[in-house]
Amino acid sequence: MGARAGIVVTGTEVLTGRVVDRNGPWLSDRLRELGVDLETIIIVGDRAQDMEHALSFLAGEGCDLIVTSGGLGPTADDLTAEVVGRFQGREMTMDDALRGRIAKILEGIARRWPHIDLEALEEGNRKQATIPAGATILEPVGTAPGLVVTPSGGSTTPAVVVLPGPPRELQGMWPAALITDAFRLAIKDHTEYRQAMLRMFGIPESEIAETLRRAHDAGIAIDELEITTCLRRGEVEVVTRYEPPAQATYERFATFVRERHAATLFSDDGTSIDDQVAALLRRAPARTVALAESCTGGLLSARLTDLPGSSAYVRGGAVVYSNEAKSDLVSVDPALIGEFGAVSVEVARALADGAIERFGADVGVGITGIAGPDGGTEDKPVGTVCFSVAERDGPRIDRRAHLPGSRGDVRDRSTTVAMHLLRRLLLGLGDLPTM
Amino acid sequence: MGARAGIVVTGTEVLTGRVVDRNGPWLSDRLRELGVDLETIIIVGDRAQDMEHALSFLAGEGCDLIVTSGGLGPTADDLTAEVVGRFQGREMTMDDALRGRIAKILEGIARRWPHIDLEALEEGNRKQATIPAGATILEPVGTAPGLVVTPSGGSTTPAVVVLPGPPRELQGMWPAALITDAFRLAIKDHTEYRQAMLRMFGIPESEIAETLRRAHDAGIAIDELEITTCLRRGEVEVVTRYEPPAQATYERFATFVRERHAATLFSDDGTSIDDQVAALLRRAPARTVALAESCTGGLLSARLTDLPGSSAYVRGGAVVYSNEAKSDLVSVDPALIGEFGAVSVEVARALADGAIERFGADVGVGITGIAGPDGGTEDKPVGTVCFSVAERDGPRIDRRAHLPGSRGDVRDRSTTVAMHLLRRLLLGLGDLPTM
User: Fold this and answer.
1) All domains of chain A, ordered by start, with CATH?
2) A265-267 and A235-242 as β-strands: parallel, antiparallel, unpaired?
3) Is B150 exposed, middle or buried (0-12, 13-18, 19+ CB in 10 A)?
4) Min Cα–Cα distance to chain A from B390, Å
5) Distance from CA of B70 to the nearest CA of A (A)
6) Do B314 and A321 count as a contact with CB atoms less than 8 A apart?
7) The overall pTM is greater than 0.95
8) Cβ–Cβ of A228/B13 closer than 8 Å?
């Protein structure tokens, strides 16, 4: 049995859904890299009893390590340090040296906000410097210190790593937690795992279930592999985790999947479609891209420029919601809109070509569609989206798709379709296969 | 003691952070609207034992109702129906009528994917129609039926509502769950809660902690209120939940906050900054807006067009990453870039003016900055972002800000600053106050 961990995310704002938890998933990734088996993520509000029960539950599940996020702020509803102290049988004490170090940080904040209430700052300072006696301090990245708290006396509760809620602070503090003796001792039984991911676009999830059955029937010992499949933003992901002795089994399995899904498998090395499109645009002959977006309203531009260094190949984009903007900005012939309608493959082509011309790019992308909730017709219902990706004086892929879901889903899924069409154009592959 | 609920989110892809859970927060909101107290959200992988322990934990915490999401798919790693059946002491049986209804749905899918493996579909069909005996069926929105499963015999475990993982399916099925007898019985002790939200922009969270202390000192019985504060996308949110008899206390508290934070409070009725900007653009005299974005790469356009009906006031946007695009698309004078640099208030002004001209809009927004991780200088470190929002021949607000965090944080936070500047311009308020 390897090392096991649990995560407790605290915060009424997370429990009530006002804030999306980014810490649970991030910590989950880090623990997996360390070969620690994550049992459970528990989200509780800022109530001491709920937090205590969550800690006890994870201890009862056999966790060797618990990581908490949140509840270290300056306000009275931030209770984590106190609750963890009680859980480990440790008194709370004010650490004067720590208080001084936090005070130094607060001086900087006070300079940024000239009219700030200094008494409020000091009250928060005292609270944040009050920690369980004997805990290991992780120096603040923001103003809150983190803690590693082991049980006092003969108790056998798991070590608890206490981290602040803001993701930037939590992530910045993690390396310091890793090198504490308590952390290393807690995960001493970690297992070596390997993990690999296969990604496909353009098949339903049931096909993967069938692939697993066929792999099993073909004599591949898939029981040695921990395989999970999921559908994400329209892509099917098959993630396999295994211990090193199962490497050969994994390779047989991966080959089996590659053969059965040759037309739709686009990644077997962990790269995302975004990474691949960026790499294809950069590699010789390097090409630049420009966009003209209607229904996606800038989402594809935002997605392409999300990667650092994208200014090397993104020439620019036009968000052309109105017909006038389509004509004025990227020279779509109004007669074309009159004849085929703004949502048509013909207009998508004109958008792609117009983007190439307007921005002087090598490759253009045009998207026009009906994201909803209104604007659908019998012939072009909500979810109808037309795409064109083209190289200047070169190959082109046009596609009309019908995408499911809400306005947000249609807009998001449209960017994924466009990324895949772009990849296929850059690889000289032609349109997506029909399954 | 009112009705209490717990949520179990299943799925290794969620536990390992590959998929962000949208169901927990959504269900949390729905339960709160019903006056049900949410205890805990537990995320577990696709392992039967972990799911069972999560259900037992929530039963032990005194939940009257448990809602599960996920694990109802056609693949063998989808175990929820079986685990919940066992938890409630019910045998699994194939429901032939249900199987027939699912088969009809699958026929539609098979038509969309002409080369699909029919055997795989049928295997999935059998699995998805196998349910705990006596469970109430919630008709599929996708292909998976939901379930409401009560304990068999004399057991006192809470009722379990079993919902599919895809948010669209889960949300579509929720109304059917609500009207089942088992659900209504489980939440019969629900409390009537009221909830209100105050939102501020431009103050640190410590100021709110001080406000709470001062409200207490001023004799406001804030113990009657359940107040949570959080920092989200740079905005401070104060959410208060209370039972109806505390209405007068809440009003005193809200007045106290409004007075102390008059300059930075922008919402006391639950509206978001996005709602407000949309409403301001629509109200007489209706105004249109156009954008020229550099470092945000289309994110602000995407944010403004996220709301249905935004085509009424968003004229369009230009994503002008390169200096050439800035000049070609929105007529930024290259000499200006030469003199002040691309990241400068002067260029932001030219971008806003150019957007107004190019798109024929009433209001223009220009954003230019250094999102990082590279490109910072001593004078303009990473996180420096310049904004200009302007009315055609009218008032204007310019701002140079330094925003913390990663590339993604800087880009996202920039859109929030721009939205607030836009609101203030449309209200005739001038620049954000300095705290």
Assistant:
1) 4-186 (3.40.980.10), 194-267 (3.30.70.2860), 273-427 (3.90.950.20)
2) unpaired
3) buried
4) 19
5) 11
6) yes
7) no
8) yes
